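Please annotate the following for my students:
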Amino acid sequence: MTKPILSILLLLLSLTAFSQKEFVFNKEGIEYAKNGRFQIAFESFNNAIKANPNFSNAYTNRGNIYRMQKKYGLAIKDYSKSLELNPQNMDVVYSRAKTYCEKKDFQNAIKDYSIIIDQNPSFKDIYFERAYANIRLENYSAAKIDLESQLALTPTDFKSLANVINVKTKLKLFEEALADYETILTAYPDQPNLHIVYSNRANLFKDMDQLPKALENIETALTLNNDYDIGFLNRAEINLKLGNKEQACADFNVALNLGVEKNEHFKVDEDYTLLKKNCK
């Protein structure tokens, strides 16, 4: 009887070792990735999937590598497979949503953010993230609701405070936006992104046709950050409206040299087209 028992024991041990391979490969991949050895990490995650095609963590980690390589379609495919195997993992839903945003597929990003909100409405920054996707789609009313929901959870969140002002500006709630600017500039005098706040307030004054105040605010923005490409573009637009064509074109050229056209927030609009026409 000893031999059959020993054979069964050896078989069980080999099966257990085989079933643990995916964890070993996955752990190795994580360590390689931490040390910047992403191709070897990728191969480790591949091996983990080969060892166990139903191992959700390996798909997630391989998806992270694809996302880092900007292979967004493959990243989304891996995140989706991971979620097929483990649908309750909201961290993976979040990663997929962020990948959709990087791919500029904001509609699908919103769908994923909504899944997270339904499951876990206190998930970190989740209303802000959905608001951002709505802003990129110019769904300003929906973005306002999301930002207000985020501020109900995190009342001192600077980025949500700043963005709700921008949304109010887009919705032409100018007086509310101006009051909010006073609040945020008083409450956060040392915030590192204040140049963006002053630039945005300059845009508000420009929309209100208060050009001297717009110019004053954009000057402050550029004093805080003298490499601010969007800031130089804004000052160029304001100066052109004020009739200062020479200064407008000088600022326009600085903005172009700083790569403003590659800025994710850059958009060709009427003011930009007019600048380009006047500053050939």
In short: Residues 192-280 form a domain with the Serine Threonine Protein Phosphatase 5, Tetratricopeptide repeat fold (CATH 1.25.40.10). DSSP finds 15 helices and no strands in the chain. The two ends are 94 Å apart (CA to CA).
